[in-house]
Amino acid sequence: MARLARQTTISSEYFTWILFQRPNGIFYADGRGNRCDLKRYSLDTSDRAEAIQTLKLLDLKMAINLGKASPVLLNAKDLLAIPDGIASYMTYVKRPIISGGTRVSSQKRYRAVFDKFQTFAAENHLTCWQAVTRNTIDAYGAWLEEQDYAYSTVRLELNTINQLFKHLVQDTKRLPASCYQPLKLRKSDDVTRYCYRSTEVEQMIAYCLQQPKLHWLAYVLTALATTGLRISELASLRWSDIQNGKLVLLDTSRRGTRKQRQQARTTKGGYTRSFPIHPDLQAVLDRLLRHPDGFLFHGPEGGRLKPDTVRLIFIREVITPLSPLFPTPPDELGFADGRLHSFRHYFCSQCADSNTPEQMLMIWLGHRDSRMVRHYYHLRDNTSVEHMHKLNLVGTASAALRQVAPLSETSTAAVSATTTEKGV
Description:
Elements: E1 5-11, E2 16-21, E3 27-30, E4 40-42, H1 48-65, H2 72-75, H3 82-93, H4 104-123, H5 134-146, H6 151-171, H7 198-209, H8 215-227, H9 231-235, E5 242-243, E6 246-249, H10 258-262, E7 273-276, H11 279-285, H12 307-322, H13 342-353, H14 358-365, H15 370-376, H16 381-390, H17 397-403, H18 409-421
Antiparallel strand pairs: 1-2, 2-3, 3-4, 5-6, 6-7
């Protein structure tokens, strides 16, 4: 066999190739080391520079054949770089809210998604959006799962990439229609947040009240348990939000000038809502000091209540010391997994178990979709048993059933013999 000369390993965009030259001067590319259906291929040239250019085209064609690249790339003249496509979408979502733009908090979330996607793209030698196929997005989802991201996080990430594709195809026409393949992502009905039990809520509040330094936290926990508010919503409450025995959560993101809207108060749902003040919450309000800043709740040093600080103190000062009282079974959600947002699940479950009308509960929680109420509701075993026992399913036969003597081995044998005689 003739000796091969000048073997060189070349990492192209999709595969790694061994470039070598036969004694007759013709260059060949060997892709067998990629563990896929690649072979040796003649590049039909003895010029090294031309061979490398031909290898790039071969690399793309093989990637298309194996579903790693879009056929659009073969004829694409103006390739859209990954960062440029992201910049276009971010400009789009930053348009005025009145035109359908998103909030600053959503824009930050999108940026975090794209940061991770660009890391994935770099690892897989993806430089343009024309190279991103449905298989690429599936691979990105698998990449996220390998890093142990939650199901809901993976779904959000993939959905955001899908929205970007839709923008680049339909809104800006930067990509051909064949590049947009709508994803069908399944929503998870599994609840990944622990829901406190009433005994646990009682113990947490009592524990805080036993320590003067934690009285402020006892008031915060009581408010969360009696309103179902998110901690960010609770931290923004002012004395002026108490109106005629109700708490009014304002959303002013659509009022005033642009400068005023930048300082606006917002709710996650984007609209103002209100609900009655529970007597236990009123007891807390009666004990709060009125600070000059106008806010209802304050931190341990009397300063503005900061959600992240409350979360850290709550875990350290309440969840950790009380966890031994409420052991968490292995591989299950338990008290040790409880967080501030678990009070929202608790409030929803307690209201539902007390037969609060669903529409009313949706208004209190700020949901326009009853599916979210079902997401937050945790059915307790004792509540389930209680409601099952209230059902009248067999009517008057219920009393007769209780008067029939239990089956014995003798009666069972007799029934068996009778059915045998009758040929049943």
